Amino acid sequence: MLYQTENQHGGDVYGGGITLDFSANTNPLGTPPGVLEAVRRGLPQLHRYPDPYCRQLVQAIAAHEQVPASYVLCGNGAADLIYAYCAALRPRTAAEPAPTFAEYGLGLAQVGCRVAPYFLHQAENFDVDEGFLPFLEEKKPEVVFLCTPNNPTGRLLPLPLLSAAALVLYPFGMLGSLRIGAVLAVLAVVIAVSRVITGVHFVSDVLAGLAFGLVFAVAGRVAYIAAASALGYYAIMIL
Question: What per-residue string of b and e applies to 129-168 under the rule 16 or more CB within 10 Å gives b?
Fold first, then answer.
């Protein structure tokens, strides 16, 4: 329910005499007959609570998409899942194109997340362009919301751009976050010193391990850059 709050979601056809509603993903031709028939068949069970895990729906979607059922999460509309995601993970920084689906920003605002908008321009048909990747590298957000087709522009995000964005974001995720990296670095130093003090390893062994670690880190960085470049987009990786 919305109390003393402007409805930014769309679909409110009850207060303005709206005939055609383009603010929500609804069928302008009305409810399909097959859906109405399914509702009629379910009416005798109306006194029951719905399945909280949507078991039959999950299985049907998984079979249709040919993916494991564990890949499917159903909610009371996309907004329900967006708010649940933000409440569960409580990200501190995020990025999103602007304009885009308003519920992303609203869900993030409820958990005090700082959102960096990447502004889209009419001259470029409101497309997310290659400048988005350096923008992500600069902002290093914990969360990025991308909508395809984007709402309200209706523009599709190219698959290569999505792939390249994932490559850019990976080092800033859980395995590459600065906080976890700092903790692991301190832990590595403690272990290295303890190994030398206890006589388990020579100093030369520890230095050799450091050298190998740096080599693999640089190789991983080069691999990410090469993969992003192969997709036709510029990306900078910081590991």
Answer: ebebbebbbebbbbbbbbbeebbebebebbeebebbbebb
DSSP 103: H
Ordered alpha helix ranges (H), 16-152: 33-42, 55-65, 78-89, 102-110, 132-139
pLDDT tens, position by position, 156-190: 888 777 777 776 666 555 444 555 555 556 666 66
Name every residue whose Cβ is closer than 8 Å to that of residue 115 and which is 6 or more positions away in sequence.
93, 94, 95, 96, 104, 105, 108, 109
Name the pTM for this structure: 0.63
Q: How far is CA 134 from CA 19, 130, 229, 232, 235, in A?
A: 43, 8, 13, 14, 6
